[in-house]
Amino acid sequence: QVQLVESGGGLVQAGGSLRLSCAASGTTSGIARMGWYRQAPGKERELVASMSTARVKTYSDSVKGRFTISRDNARSTVSLQMSSLNPEDTAVYYCHVRRSYVEGTGIRNEDYWGQGTQVTVSS
Predict the structure, then answer these.
(1) Are strands 31-39 and 46-52 parallel, antiparallel or unpaired?
(2) Which residues lie closer than 8 Å to 74 by C-beta, 6 or more apart?
(3) Residue 110: half-sphere exposure toward Cβ, Cα within 13 Å
(4) What pLDDT digit, counting tens, does each position of 87-103 carry?
């Protein structure tokens, strides 16, 4: 099992910046990907940014150039620096971890989620 504790978030004016952080604990061996998803009211949860252990980064088109994901593999932490925020970025942001390991002749993936942190951008 992996436990995730998020910090950061809050209320910010349009054009402002916020930083989200997430720390993983428990069985952190085998963590493959760490990242952030968000869910706005009435919408599905969507990927914001993700980073592999090999430090390959993936961003949604809507945040490219504005958000930066970083990860500390040794500490099992992931952060999201958000800049040039706009009201469309308002959502609950969830830390996500995928843990992968060999089981039998295959690979097993386990997904873990944080409790979510609210980000509200006022216009």
Answers:
(1) antiparallel
(2) none
(3) 14
(4) 999 999 999 999 999 99
